[in-house]
Amino acid sequence: MPYQNIEAQVPAADVQAIKDAVTAIRAKLPFLVSLTADERRKIFKTGPDSLSFVQNSLQAAKNNPSILPGSFDAAGFESDVNLFAVLTEVGTIIAQVASDVDDTRLAVGGEAMTGAKQVYNYVKAAVATTPGLKPVADQLGERFQRASAPKQPASTTPSA
Questions:
Q1: Under a CB-based contact definition with an 8 Å cutoff, are residues 137 and 125 in contact?
Q2: What phi-psi label fits residue 131: left (phi over 0), alpha (psi between -120 and 50 degrees) or beta?
Q3: Contact in structure between 92 and 48 (CB atoms under 8 Å)
Q4: How many whole angstroms separate alpha carbon 135 and alpha carbon 149?
Q5: 79-92 burial by CB neighbour count: b if 16+ within 10 A, else e?
Q6: Residue 144's pLDDT band (boundaries 50, 70, 90)?
Q7: CA 141 to CA 121: how far, in whole Å?
């Protein structure tokens, strides 16, 4: 759905309530882990599409316990499957909110940059007639000087 110009404020009390809610979520999920890039690379990849496979595997294990070796931790497997299902559901809900926050931040940021560019253009135009604006124009212009600065070419040394 196309969005209209976003006119909203988030009072400090609401920001704090959001932070408190995230803290409460973390408190309810004290076992959450942060994986390194290497750990992420080594783990067998799963996602929402894998949920039915692991649930069906759990059902097969429950229905046919005699085929499992004694070393297989069926209770641990069932616990993992159940937690995976819950985290998949919770993760989907949180991902939807995160996506909406990111899209809204992008949209509002675009609106803010459009307004900032207009102000910068007004300041540049007024430099000639309004004393003291040159430092402001220079400061605002730094953003565009960095963005348009030519990149240093990569050194080209002949390879052997």
A1: no
A2: beta
A3: yes
A4: 20
A5: eebeebbeebeeee
A6: confident
A7: 10
Looking at residue 39, what is its pLDDT? 96
19, amino acid identity: K
Two tokens at 67? 């085929």
**CA dist 65 → 53, 77, 79 (Å):** 18, 12, 16
Q: What is the dihedral of CA 71, 69, 73, 77, to 10 degrees?
A: 150
Residues 123, 133: contact at Cβ < 8 Å? yes
The pLDDT value recorded for residue 119 is 96
Question: Can you list the alpha helix ranges (DSSP code H) found in 4-153?
Answer: 12-28, 37-42, 51-63, 74-126, 134-148
Is residue 35 within 8 Å of residue 43, measured between CB atoms?
Answer: yes
